[in-house]
Amino acid sequence: MTGTTEIDLKKLELWCYDAAECLSKFVDADLTASRRATIARYTGKKRAILTIASDLAEGISHLPDEDRSDAQRVLKANHGFGYEYFQQRMLRVIDSILKNGKISSMSQYEKALDFLSDTTNEHDMLVSLSEIVAAYEVKLSKKRKQQ
């Protein structure tokens, strides 16, 4: 799954429903219902569905080993890709930011903030990324003052 075409987007939406189901036994019924409603509300909206999928993948990544493996197996069997697809996608963005030494877009900025919020990530990467984020925030602040 490299690009997200309309067909891929529908597949991704179905993946989200299955991922939410995999997480359902670990959360209360109201949260599960809310997740399903959110997926339905954003059907056909690529960026929103990608964000939802990433959030669900993050939740799956924190499950106990056996449950995480079960979820991965179900998702791969039903859709051809598991939760790690979204983690790899985020890491590619973070690697690009670190390699270039700068953030080029608001989307990259949001992914960097998300990555920084996980304190289990490698300390040196967090420090380097924090410096890049701080520089981007200065740039944003200057831009806002000019408007």
Describe the protein's architecture and organization:
The protein has about 150 residues and is mostly helical. It has 2 domains: about 5-80, no CATH class; about 85-145, no CATH class. The chain is built from 7 helices and no strands. The radius of gyration is 17 Å and the shape is globular. Residues about 1-5 have low confidence and may be disordered.
List the helices and strands and how they pair.
Layout: H1 6-24, H2 29-41, H3 46-61, H4 65-79, H5 84-100, H6 106-116, H7 123-146
Helix pairs in contact: 1-2, 1-3, 1-4, 3-5, 5-6, 6-7
Distance between the termini: 40 Å
Number of helices: 7
Radius of gyration, whole Å: 17 Å
Helix and strand composition category: mainly alpha
Q: Helix amount, in percent?
A: over 70%
Amount of beta strand: under 5%
> Sheet with the most strands?
none
Structural domain tally = 2
Q: What series of H and E elements makes up the topology? A: HHHHHHH
Number of strands: 0
Note the overall shape.
globular
Q: What's the mean pLDDT score?
A: 89
Q: Poorly predicted ranges (pLDDT <50, ≥5 residues)?
A: 1-6
Q: What is this entry, summarized?
A:
78% of the residues lie in helices and 0% in strands. By secondary structure, the protein is mostly helical. Mean pLDDT is 89; it is low at 1-6.
What characteristics describe this protein?
147 residues; disordered N terminus; single chain; globular; mainly alpha; 2 domains
